[in-house]
């Protein structure tokens, strides 16, 4: 993600956004590695202590793309220092941590984003626009599954498998993306009935979960994530069924959206000039990559910082990061209790 | 289904199966309608009382394609009269009814099939063969959803919406197909956490359900069925992920199977001479229709009756019909209790 | 094709068509083989001399599914004897033969069909209806390719590879289907510029051809057929582009039609009650197989024989068979001359 | 293309390539427009006379993304001034012009690329690697069609419709991409039989062409391009059939490659670490956009300039641009003569 954020910030210097970011400094644990990253990715300075960045008055935006266990402390410090922040997902290691991060950011009065970059896929934004315009009618079903397969042969020493650093496995890594999209597109999740599994012997975080969910409007959905689905590379697929139509999205074909009316599905290539974000890019039919989603996300944050729309209306804000964490914890609680669990929020 | 069974029985007179069925009689409530069906579908006699058929010594196989509420009495009578039987799904209106039907059939010592015809789709049978041969390794996930959309504008007087005749809605009609395939391909289901919904105002049976399930081997899955998914006509899709590979099936493209090894998905047109059931039909690339699944199903029953393989090894037997009903009832119990429910069986 | 025609004729006894065919006799060269076919496929008598069939007054319809070299003599004799006829494609070994067959049939005043059964795929018929209704505007492009791969490992003694029996290879077998669809959907072909190739050493008929064609309305198209396209089983794909929309069809998914308006493609499952031929069959989403196309074709002929619509308005009549042969010969002439060749017709 | 080249050059400053480009100056006809472009796209200087750039000693690489009529003069001048060059396709307005451009570049001893960026799509490069490794066996067929639909409603004053500026229409714009890919993947084209059409009244360049082609190895192919194919946005699709396998590519899904062995097609997401160009980018399953093809193309040129591999082994060099132009002219000659035309080359 460090590479993707660096590239996006450079790119935003050359797009029609209200602020042109300067790449002041990048920090990391290893002196040599971080200097290489600095040099390759175009940062002015390389540091091994993020505290120097928090103290640097030139810095107005602090982006945290570190392991999950290194989200809370730097984010809180940066917010208190008055810097706008973007933190990768999941926000904190627990819902409570996430809540504290959100509260700290609110108290500081800064702009805050949690890195749910799939809100910034043009086809996802188009889905949101269709829903807001009522073109799909009332939503009655939502189903999403995020499948990868790298978990079978993965290096067991990866930080993603260490409970202390990652917090959780497929649920935190992939599941939170789906939870966020469910919330962004349909609304708040009220209850969850779920199972969570660790399949690979010796692994300490989950490989797989399934959940049946109920939204606050009473409608139902399913969520599933796995790192063990052979043949699937990055298959984040959701379907929304409304009373007047449906949409299907697949991250592996992120430039496409299948849209049904009451009869049949139409395949839309989301690259027309009037499609979300396409004013930045190419003529129709010239597709975007995954990297552009991060450009759009940071662009949205720059607009928010510039005061164009007060807050960041499409989020995902730290509040979204917190709410997502509560849903994830309800899933874990349900897996443990064998009961349908309410999602509850601190206030 | 009456039309489909009639056609299949006629067709089987001209395929390489050990018995050639004679179409003795067809029965129905309305004299005129049943005579039309007799004449068009090629039956020798038309009757308005199925008891005459039970008493008819010429009849060796009794097929019941009537509404769900008319399954139990004729089936039990036919079995007691020593006739082999095929009963459309779901078997009984309750799991208990289904159990009684199974027991009666066992006591009578006849061959019995419950009409889960999707076991007889060549691509489904090929999936089973791949699993039995270990080509997908150990199954770790199963997901299925059966989506239709006709429920939005449907005639409210249809028997399918009458609780007394249909028993349940999407769960009994579509969900049971998925439960049966899950059992046929993966194994017994141990527990279910589910929600069931009636969305359309005034409707008395369910339109939609979602379930997170656990198999006896500890692995997880999801099931969902709806009659309200806009753009979906008959979209019965399942995916099995194993430790060595995966398969994806879609009933709307029933001649295809997507098969993954540890790397990527391959699209197989299941029409090669060595593919299941294809010895009956055409050269490679000449696809089959839905109607042929009923031919294969009845052909399997004829082979069982002829003693070719003792029982009907691919079922679905009345035991399968009963076990499916227990899973469906666990889903309903879970929806009501808000708890993960065990599937239990009478013995 | 003998099996497919037999099945279709039996099936038509139980569909809503104006005549119920009786299966009088089947003939073939080998006594034993033809008796087996008779017994399995439901014919009353088996013969080794088609002349007996021509002389049989009970027979009103003569279907010829034999090798191409055995089309002309029996067809002419049957027509002269006043029998209605269906002859598999290609009609004659040459355009001239085909012309004579057509003329003989016309003189005899009987109903005649050339076996271009893809006119009777519901999605193809729907394409025709869309074109007739002007929904695609004016046709500007047509492209079709029919790809199979069995030619690589095929038995060299097959009659399909013997020039004397087959006439030609991929062109006659697959190319004629595409030529017929081009004519049926778009209109007459005026000129062709083509190459024809035999790739496999020792083979005496063509494996592959490509043609750039011009329709009489001045618009252009491409045709290609091959038996050597690895991975393709029966991939007969065409696309029609009009000023207001497009359609794409693939025989391997014969129940689907992709239809574009001026913006995007929609996937239609051609199984709705108001879709062509679906009144014979199942509820929406329950797909048909290749075999049903032959049922529809013979049903159309039965309607024509019964006088329902005078001639067979959807053909393909022997005139269509003849006209197709002229296009095929223009393709061969162009391959030999290196020039764009006019398609000309005898009169 | 100016935007795409600017972005690619900036991006290459941060990728692992042997030279880091500086963006010295950009030129254009309109003072105001070019200054906006300079400012937004990150160039140091904006000019209205390209001759100043030719005279600027700081400049080592001259990229020409102007209209086709403005390719020859600046390219020749830049080459003579010893600058390396990249010129958008088609190279010259005629094959002869293109030949002169190539010769001038050769005499100057500089590195030269013609902008066929689709050689730099990872899936296209993978196709080339599979062919070179013999995994598809001997190529027997090649078919390509490049379909767009914007021609129906396009602004008639666009330079693309002016014969003097564009040279030709769909043939020069889209057809040349296909010709280049045919040459890159299969080999030289020997002859062409073609039609070229202007369909829209009042238009002075072609909207559509079709060609049947023969490669020097005797194998056949088809090419087609149109700006009038409703529903198609940027549908550049090719298929290569070899004796041992096939591949299918679609530019609208440029991250995918369908690869057949002798049996069936496999869908490959070309985003694995060992896939071409992926070392620059993201983890598996995170797709690239069209813009990245230009990054890869310019990266290849930088490597060539740095002497990494002497010339630019993957081209497309000006020789490729010239050879492509000869094929395009053979297509036009064939359309006019009605004969199969040889492709001949100046020497």
- Along the chain, the helix and strand elements of chain A come as HEHEHEHEHEHEHHEEEEEEEHHE
The name of the CATH architecture of the largest domain in chain A is 2-Layer Sandwich
Biggest sheet architecture of chain A:
9 strands, mixed
- The CATH homologous superfamily of the largest domain in chain A: Dihydrodipicolinate Reductase, domain 2
- Uncertain residue segments of chain A: none
| Strand order within the widest beta sheet of chain A | 13-12-11-10-6-9-8-7-14
Biggest interface between protein chains, with counts per chain? Answer: A-B, 50 and 50 residues
Looking at how many chains there are and whether they match, the oligomeric state comes to: homotetramer
Text of the CATH class of the largest domain in chain A: Alpha Beta
Could you say how many structural domains of chain A there are in total?
2
Total number of β-strand segments of chain A?
14
Percent strand of chain A? 15-25%
Structural class of chain A: alpha/beta
Total of DSSP H or I helical runs spanning 4+ residues of chain A: 10
Large-scale geometry of chain A? globular
Supply Rg of chain A. Answer: 20 Å
CA distance, first residue to last residue of chain A: 32 Å
CATH topology name of the largest domain in chain A, in short, is: Dihydrodipicolinate Reductase, domain 2
Mean pLDDT of chain A: 96
